[in-house]
Design goal:
Blueprint (H helix, E strand, L loop, with lengths): L2 H6 L15 H11 L11 E6 L2 H10 L4 H5 L2 E8 L1 H9 L9 H24 L3 E5 L6 H8 L5 E10 L13 H4 L10 H18 L9 H8 L7 H8 L6
Antiparallel strand pairs: 1-2, 2-4, 3-4
Helix pairs in contact: 2-6
The protein binds flavin mononucleotide (FMN).
Flavin mononucleotide binds next to strand 3.
């Protein structure tokens, strides 16, 4: 193990923050190093909006399902999938452009996720903590208005960052053998491994320090998609000129 692997292997989401700011210099160092994330075709199809103003963070907190940690963290980041610079490049080169198919959407979301994970890891390496926020997609039109996002740019996820007040236990991950396959996908082994993981997660939920509950992993995830979630996203993405053909 080395320092980087120690940092990666120590991750847990942090939702409680000390009343201590993160300097702009430090944030810029984090962003600079995170920009070295690999990027499809060197497109760099992402942007990040840095939110520090209390009122705006409060609004975003409400728009994201009333998640208090968004209002309380010193820095809230909104990571946007961004094809706007690619559009401008086509205009500068006087070339026509067609984003109305699914591949640019995939490219921009993958690029944004790679950049975002780098940001969290860099922050964690500096003693900061944070949590991704998918709740930012609960009311995406309102978020776009608040942040003045143009067409071809949409908020993919947020991230609370700050100095940790409270650090939770790590949440156990799947057995590696359920995730890693050799040469071909082995569907046969999965049911048993998931059952094994159910025991691990039940023990974790029953024994963790806060929000204890008695639940298995399958119990939890099988609730999630009983009903369709964020169905507005398809229409929203079309409005933002991200296509599906
Ligand atoms: C894309 C994404 C969106 C997430 N959205 C939220 C969120 O809206 N609110 C929240 O409290 N946690 C959110 N999380 C954090 C996950 O719940 C957390 O990563 C997961 O439960 C594993 O826990 P850990 O990060 O502590 O290991 C999100 C994570 C990801 C990757």
């Amino acid at each position: 193990m080395n320092f980087l692997m120690d940092v990666m292997g120590s991750h847990r989401s942090v939702r409680n923050f000390r009343d201590k700011d993160i300097s702009s210099d430090l944030m810029n160092q984090i962003f600079e190093v995170s920009q070295w994330a690999s990027t499809s075709n060197h497109l760099q199809a992402y942007s990040v909006i840095v939110m520090r103003e209390k009122d705006k963070k409060k609004s975003l907190s409400e728009l994201s399902g009333h998640q208090a940690h968004i209002a309380e963290c010193p820095v809230f980041l909104v990571f946007c999938a961004d094809l706007n610079r690619i559009k401008l490049s086509h205009e500068l080169e006087k070339k026509s452009m067609n984003f109305n198919f699914v591949e640019p959407l995939l490219v921009a979301t993958v690029d944004t996720a790679l950049f975002g994970q780098n940001v969290l890891l860099a922050a964690e390496s500096l003693g900061l903590g944070g949590v991704f926020i998918g709740g930012i997609r609960n009311n995406p039109h309102e978020v776009c208005d608040l942040l003045n996002l143009p067409e071809h740019v949409f908020p993919l996820f947020g991230m609370c960052l700050g100095y940790p007040e409270k650090v939770n236990e790590q949440k156990p991950r799947m057995p590696l053998s359920a995730v890693v396959h050799t040469e071909q996908y082995d569907n046969e082994k999965l049911a048993g491994l998931i059952q094994e993981y159910n025991d691990t997660m039940k023990h974790y939920y029953e024994n963790r320090t806060s929000a204890k509950r008695s639940q298995t992993w399958t119990d939890y995830v099988s609730e999630l998609y009983k009903e369709p979630r964020r169905v507005h996203m398809a229409e929203f993405l079309k409005d933002k000129k991200f296509g599906f053909n």
